[in-house]
Amino acid sequence: MTDTIKIYHNPRCSKSRDTLNLLKSNGVEPEVVLYLDTPADAATVRELLRMLGHVQRARTDAPERRSL
User: 32-35: long-range contacts (C-beta < 8 A, 24 or more apart)?
Assistant: First the structure.
């Protein structure tokens, strides 16, 4: 059994589009979550952080980040 690949996708983001295209060009049909339309709940965010090893990740160049 293989694990389902899930991508939290923003169609307006070139890196997100490139990643999705890379997966598909390699025969992978991931589950696509449009996270701007369907935000993750707190439990999902905690699980993703656990899977990433609790490394905090934030874009420092985003306007939203600069305003904090």
Answer: 32/6, 32/7, 33/6, 33/7, 33/8, 33/9, 34/9, 34/10, 35/8, 35/9, 35/10
